[in-house]
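User: Continuing from earlier, I have the next pair ready.

Assistant: Great, send them over.

User: Here they are, in order.

Assistant: Folding the first of the pair now:
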Amino acid sequence: MKRDYYEVLGIPREADLQQIKKAYRRLARELHPDVNTGDPNCEEKFKEATEAYEVLSDQEKRSLYDAYGHEGLRGGAGGFGDFGGFSDIFENIFSTFAGGGFGGSFTGGSARSAGPARGDDLSVEIQLTLEEAAFGVEKEVTFHAQGTCSACEGQGTTNPGSVTTCSECGGQGVVRVVRRTILGQIVQTAPCVRCGGRGQVIKEPCSDCQGAGRRPMERKVTVNIPAGIAAGQRIRVGGRGGAGERGARFGDLYVHVAVAPHEFFERSRDDIFYKISLTMTQAALGCTLTIPTLDGDEEVEFAAGTQPGEQKTLKGKGATRLNGHGRGDEIIKISVLIPHNLDGAQRQLLLEFEDSCANEQYGERSEGVFDRLRSFFRG
């Protein structure tokens, strides 16, 4: 795809003819094939810069390019080389028919509205703890972006009297462009190049922002993180993105959420999981242990005969449900530790215990575990 002509020449979209010529002369000296004999790509870059200059230095072509981009220039200023770009004009013709007939010429709309451009949408990432994501929090994010110029308060000038009506468009922000086509003349509107669609020209622009009303700066925004948000989700903060051109509104800020790993918990939707290992004795006899939760430590009772792989649920101890009611659960996953490196006395005690137990005391669920224990102790 072709690069943007303003980008090729390295100039802003509101650049005047003198700036365009100056940029092209600089590039022509840098990229001329006779100067850059060692650069195999310089000839193509030179042609690209020349093409950009030919379009932007021509008022009619530039207006078409600003309105329709590269598609509007196919076939040159006088017609259509192919049917690329034809659909845009055809739509304008049909909209004219629908609006009440035609005569010797057609009047179409513009491909984009006139006036200063809205600010850019921005994306930032914010890192939360599991607790912050579960219960919600206010966080301040810092980023670099276009902001309102403090020197002129976004007006583009510190002298309001220096703002005059654009002589090119008469303050309308748009100009009329006449195209000759196979269907006759088409009169279209395009943003005024001289004033950038604003309808006004500043004779004494602000020295800090050069009349733009905005400039790059460090920005800080406080974001309200809702309870129950999860990693990978994003929050839209309307109107807190990049500052628009003078008089235009700000873009939006999108905050992407990341959640740091937790020391104890893993989260799945609104539930959190905690792993605990009981000794063989604790599992067999039962015990009460202190278990961490999102609300603080809690005493939890484990029944006698607790088996490996069992789970215990603490209702309502999980994360807050996003845009809903209540909370998820905390689920405790239980494993049982088997002793190893036993000395002779310990082995003998366990063998005596094993011989004293009837098979039904183990139960069907734990038979496999104790079969393995029996082989281990006797082995």
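And the other member of the pair:
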Amino acid sequence: MDKSQIWRSWWAAVGAAVAVSLGAGGAWVTHAASPPSSLVMIQPARILDTRNPTNLGLAGPFTSAVSQDLQVTGSIPTGTGIAIVVPSGATGVLLNVTPVGPEAGGFISIRPADASRGPTTSNLNFDTAQINPNSVQVEVPTTGADAGKIEITYDAFGRTGPATDVLVDVVGYTVAAGGGPDPAFAALEARVAELELSAPFTAANTDSSPRDVPNSPTVILGTVITAPTDGQITVFSTTTLGEDVAGEEMRCSITTGSTVESRFLQRWESGGPNSGQHASLTGVRTFNVSAGTMAAYRLVCEHAGGAGSTGVLEATVVSAIFTPTR
């Protein structure tokens, strides 16, 4: 081959490349590249079966050359019921696509639902009545009216009228790399955080020093809790008291207020010297709480005796246990 032949061959190759790259109007045809993505493989799930009476995903069959859009992300019908096979925000899907009973040979084109102009490329080709499955990878729009949809077209090589049923199984999807976690994983993380937040927990306060209690309601000790979710708070109290005057009393109750509540009364009466004038006073009370409620749970006591007299409490403990509503 002489030098002129080499040049002619080179220009022929360039011309062929330009012809492929030019649109009908002579302008360069470009498509914005999708962002870098990570692949997630899943157990295959059927999301399209146009055969009667199934009509899963779309009613069929497909007629040449009428395009239909199929939702592939979010909650969609599947062969086993409504499910999220591909999370919202996925940038692409990996599919197995199968024509069933085509009335004429042709091809199936699968594109993003927001693609412009008519389809000019094929993802699989087949003859009349041929079942010819093929693997298809296609970008999925993430914004706009076509978000989460792909466009499917059966074309009988330009003929109108012939029809075919179509099956589509999802075998994987892609999510934007560096664009945050897989939405399904993020939902799982949120659920774990919710369970951790609502796990039972305990708060407690202690005071071992002696405390004089007058003849009026007095807050002895308490603890503050904020309920992370709806649930119950069970409060326990114990205190040691001494009173050597017969007939005099100590009255206490667990409350969120500052008075001794008669409905939840803890009461002890002294028998006088050498007759058991020292004792432990204990109690328990449960409160129903709503998420976000903050309250102080207190032991409030009063001494009942002669004018100006007091009783003594010491070694006081107030503890509270939160348990979520199940």
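Worth noting for the second one:
The chain has a mean pLDDT of 83. The chain has two domains: 34-186, 201-324.
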